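Task: sequence design from structure.
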């Protein structure tokens, strides 16, 4: 089943504070969408994600963090606990959303869309762990998928390229 006729901006998501919204407010922005976790060996990626956001937000980059507890139960907290953890430990100021599933039967439609619409050769397959990163251009097209272990800093060149377009 292809979700390619969907528009990334139409997906409903819940903010970290519980409000329902869509991604419409990010139209025209370059997006870096990431499934996150607070108790993972890769949790320090928050620091690099925040650095990218701080550096490029004024040029149109928005990092969107989606907490997920599907991988070894590494995000067991409530949304309030997750928000506090991210702000206290990593000074996260980019948008965070409510906890979701990112793979399997109950995967959020947004993440199914991201996986199914990442073009070859940049599609790395199903979401294998916390901190898989998807880069989306200003027009809502999924450009690349990066594996969980890809350090945020490694995305800088791709981000700069998209921001210049």
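Answer:
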């Amino acid at each position: 089943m292809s979700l390619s006729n969907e528009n990334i901006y139409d997906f409903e998501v819940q903010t970290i504070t519980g409000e329902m919204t869509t991604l419409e407010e990010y139209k025209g922005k370059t997006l870096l969408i990431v499934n996150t976790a607070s108790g993972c060996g890769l949790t320090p990626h928050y620091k690099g994600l925040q650095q990218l956001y701080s550096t490029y937000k004024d040029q149109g980059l928005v990092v969107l963090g989606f907490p997920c507890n599907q991988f070894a139960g590494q995000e067991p907290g409530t949304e309030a606990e997750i928000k506090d953890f991210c702000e206290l430990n990593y000074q996260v100021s980019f948008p965070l959303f409510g906890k979701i599933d990112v793979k399997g039967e109950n995967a959020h439609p947004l993440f199914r869309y991201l996986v199914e619409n990442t073009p070859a050769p940049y599609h790395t397959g199903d979401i294998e762990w916390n901190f898989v990163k998807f880069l989306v251009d200003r027009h809502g097209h999924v450009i690349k998928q990066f594996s969980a272990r890809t350090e945020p800093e490694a995305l800088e060149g791709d981000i700069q390229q998209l921001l210049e377009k």
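The first helix runs from residue 45 to 56.
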